[in-house]
Every structure is written in structure tokens, then in C-alpha cells.
Amino acid sequence: MKLSLAILLFFWFVKGFTQISDFKHIDFKKADSIALSYPNEDLTNLPELSFKLTSHLNTDVERFRAIYRWVCANIKNDYSLYLKNKHKRERFKDDSIKFKAWNTDFRKRLFNKLLKKKQTICTGYAYLVKVLADLSDLKCEIIQGYGRVSTTDTKNLTLPNHSWNAIKLNGRWYLCDPTWASGIPNPATNRFTFNYNDGFFLANPKLFAVNHFPIEQKWWLLEGENPTFDEFLNAPVIYGNAYKTLELHNTPKYMHHNLQRFQNLKLQYQLKASIDPKDIWLLIDNGFQSKKIKPTSVKLENKSLNIEHQFNRKGFFDVHLYIEEDLISTYTIKVGNN
What we know:
Layout: H1 2-15, H2 29-36, H3 46-54, H4 60-74, E1 76-77, H5 79-92, H6 96-117, E2 119-120, H7 122-135, E3 139-147, E4 162-169, E5 172-176, H8 178-182, E6 183-185, E7 192-194, H9 205-208, E8 212-214, H10 229-233, E9 237-238, H11 240-245, E10 246-251, E11 256-260, E12 264-271, E13 280-285, E14 290-293, E15 297-301, E16 304-310, E17 315-323, E18 326-336
Parallel strand pairs: 1-2, 11-18
Antiparallel strand pairs: 3-4, 3-8, 4-5, 6-7, 9-18, 10-12, 12-16, 13-14, 13-17, 15-16, 17-18
């Protein structure tokens, strides 16, 4: 009995809490420097590229870092291609023959554009990270699932729309998202701008779960119960900047809230590093105007951040949390009479 319990606890420990802080003793400067020293490499010889990126590094995590960092710095997110694929998949989702035919044809177009122009969507990012990792004898998987950003129509999110990676390091699995880490496509112009976000590299699975829903349950990498799809759809919107600043998004668990006048909205987070409470502010939008204000209460103890804000008049409000100039999260509040 004691042995079985020990084994169970071992596997629970191995599964949970995998994140970049496990490698705080590693300096990634050399890996990043190597990755950024090959800006003009093409994809015609992936074994050679993988060797160039990893051969002078000593640990698996550094080798994977160089691969990941190179992909994020050299592959453009083709938002127009993403929109076209989304449109076709929605159009053919009830016709299995046309749906399969489109997926087959699109896959060819996708990888042809990746190889020739170094442009792709999430599937191509995840594929390239996996191939380069495999060539370096690193165990890497492509994870298929659903992704939520601020522009996602959650009411019509019926088909998987995102891909990311899991990497096995020192016997444990870690999550990363090279697509969202690489930069930001502008939905208005479809133009992509490289802007590396390190927060998506070996991210905390609990934070990752707010806007990533894997099809296979094992890729949550969470201890305890996994979120349901409804919980995922109704979660708050968190932005890329949250991954830079937050260790965890604790509460609230949902985006939409009903409050009474003079009742507080309560927000709780765990930070990666301490911040100045003066840098925290809210942007409140009632549909007619936006107002920048300070929360009613901000309490910071070690790296635990607790925010409360009281609403003194009824109405419907979008509440955006900022830390300095970084947009972190959004919630919607309906305030009624007492």
C-alpha cells in the first residue's frame, strides 16, 4: 500500500507544475544568440539547420530553446491564410467528403508556403518545431485543440482552431506556443509583426489552460480535474502580456459577472515578479466612453496580487486590467440595483 501511494505521488509530481522556473539555473543567452545568428537560413535542409542550432549547446532545454527561438524569429504568421482555412472548414464542416478534401489540399498549400516563403499558421509552426526537435533527438509532440484570443467568437467555436507543442525535458512534459510567441498579426490589415513573447515558452499549464483547450485530455498537464469545454469558453480573456507578468490567473474563473451596486469585483493573481501597485489601473468601457481609473483596492503581498473594484452605478461594463501599459485581461460586468 505504501509503495503504491509513493508511486502515485511520484507520477503526480512529475505531471504537475512543469514550467520554465524548473530551469531557472539555465542561462538561455547562448541558445538565443545562436538562434538569432541564422536569420537568412531557409528550410531546404532541416537536418543541417537543426545541427547548426543545437550542436554547440550542452543541455536538452538549451537545444530546444534555440530551435523554438529560431522558429519564432524567422517564421511569419500568415493571418490571411488562417482566415481562408477557417472559412473553408466552417463551410464544409457538415460535409465529411468536402471537409476531408479541403484539409488534404490545404495541408499541401500550407507546407509549400512554409518551405518557400517561411510563412504559415499555427499548424506549420508546431510542425516545424517538432521536426527540428526530432532531428536533435528531442521528444516533441504537436498538440491539436482550441485557442481563445480576444477576437475569438466563442459562441461559434465548434471546430479545433489551434496547434501548439509539448516538449519532454528531463523526463517531464512542458507546454509552449510558438505561434503566439512569435508576434502579432493585425486583424485589420492582416500584417504580421515579429514581437517575441517569452511567456509562451515552457508556460505554466494552469495559466496556459485559460486559453488553450487540447483535444486529448492528457495534454492539459494539470494536477486534479481538467476544465470542461464550457468552462474554457466562459473563461476570462487574457492577453499575451499576461504570460510575461502572471504566474497564475486565480480568480475570477469566468469572464461575465452580475453584480449589485456597491458590490466589489474581486481579481486575484500570482505574479512572476513583484511590481509597483501604482502601475495597476483599469480601463472601464460602458459602450459610450472609456475611463482610466485606479481600482478601489490593490493589495500586494510577496507575489500575490489582490484587486477589488466597487461599482457605484448600474450598467454594463467592459473592464480591462492594465499593468503599466500592458493589457492583461478583460471581464464584462452587469451591475444592477440593490
